[in-house]
Amino acid sequence: PVENATMEGRTVIPWDKDDIDALGILKVDVLALGMLTCIRKAFDLVAKHHKTPLTLATLPPEDRRVYDMLSAADSIGVFQVESRAQMNFLPRMKPKCFYDLVIQVAIIRPGPIQGDMVHPFIRRRNGLEAVSFPSDALGAVLGKTLGVPLFQEQAMQIAIIGAGFSPDEADRLRRSLATFKKHGNVSDFRERFMAGMAANSYDADFAARCFSQIEGFGSYGFPESHAASFALLVYASAWLKRHHPGIFACALLNSQPMGFYAPAQIVRDARAHGVEVLPVCVNASLWDNRMENRPGGALALRLGFRQIRGVGGEEGEWIAAARGNGYRAVDDVWRRAGVAPATLVKLAEADAFAALGLSRRDALWAARAVAGPKPLPLFAGDLDGEGIVEPAVTFAAMSEGEEVVEDYAALRLTLRRHPMALLRGRLTPGAGTVPTPPGHLAQGERAGSGAPRGPAVT
């Protein structure tokens, strides 16, 4: 049956992939990759700030500095190679060319891992094991990967060349392995595969490892073309990180949620690469994070309103559009941008009024004083400064630890010291003394045992 989709002008066929295949209908997987959005946004920023139009096709190829960065496992935010497993393998692989990235993408997968192909490959690559081929025929298939099958096509070619399978039989083998837990028919293929390999004089251990890899591909493995497509995005994202770390971090933040790392890690990594990161500010931020010109021609990453929990895109756009020559007070944002009082509270909690000379607690006090509806005509004079002047309220200054806690609660990141830096002296005796600021946990005191977190008036 054909059904109307939710999107206008679209139809769907509610059959699974096996039904589609049985009917002989071509099935194409279209991947929605967040990294494509990130790279597009980064290219736009490079064109805007450096007047250099870039595309995936025009990136400078084979940049040694990019490969050196990846070889050092400096890959936070880089497509496909930012996981701990990939970061652990990068210094061992030491990629030096694009095809090395193709292998890097494909090798940390169930197929090569279950087939015990990873360690033999890296030993051969590093000259610790001689490169050999089971036969000249298989050497033509395995030459690019040093005699070790890493790609789906290679596993299928081994079944065809080594075990005498027809192409259709090899593909049916792959498909049956994907569902062998359900149907339990893998033993027939294994026996035939091992017998075919033995008949063609291949070592039993090699045959067993090859079949294990094919089993892995039944769960998840990469064809070479897929790995090459992903490797292009690896190179593009790594090139941006190496040459434009601020722009790359900005694009990553504007493309969230995606990848392995939270905004806190992305921002900390950008700062480690020399990027100046500026806080959210009602008089400078936009909805998106952006690159801001600094004295001397440098660029800084200005955090946007999108980083604040509970502030929506429409509200962020209103605040930026109504700003004019700048806001002068908390209630000025309310009157001119028309945002809800609750949004003012979120801005105050994120310390977005610091540029107005207001501490977090000062801003939060002013935000909570704003009433939802506008004043009645009898009291409208207060809008012009003619109303009753309330006495000033003095607030205790927040400790650095309290500021860090509020940063994470409101923004999921902090531009202050890392939380562990506040505890390092107590956790590592002799590593230096870090005084316990007022409001921090005393030695032996458990979190949550004291008063609830939140701004306090004194």
How do the strands and helices of this protein lay out in sequence?
Layout: E1 3-4, E2 11-12, H1 17-22, H2 34-50, H3 64-71, H4 84-93, H5 98-107, H6 110-114, H7 118-125, H8 136-142, H9 152-162, H10 167-178, H11 180-183, H12 186-199, H13 204-219, H14 224-243, H15 245-254, H16 263-272, E3 276-278, E4 290-293, E5 299-302, H17 313-321, H18 330-337, H19 341-349, H20 360-369, H21 400-411, H22 424-427
Helix pairs in contact: 2-14, 2-15, 3-14, 5-14, 8-9, 9-10, 9-13, 10-13, 12-13, 14-15, 15-16, 19-20
Characteristic key phrases:
458 residues, mainly alpha, three-stranded mixed β-sheet, two-stranded antiparallel ribbon, 48% helix, elongated, disordered C terminus
Q: Can you give a write-up of this model?
A:
The chain has 458 residues and is mainly alpha-helical. Among the domains are: 28 residues, no CATH class; 166 residues, no CATH class. It has 22 helices and five strands. It has a three-stranded mixed β-sheet with strand order 3-5-4, covered by helices on one side. Helix 15 runs antiparallel to helix 16. The protein is elongated and about 95 Å long. It starts with a strand and ends in a 31-residue tail after the last helix. 33% of the residues are buried.
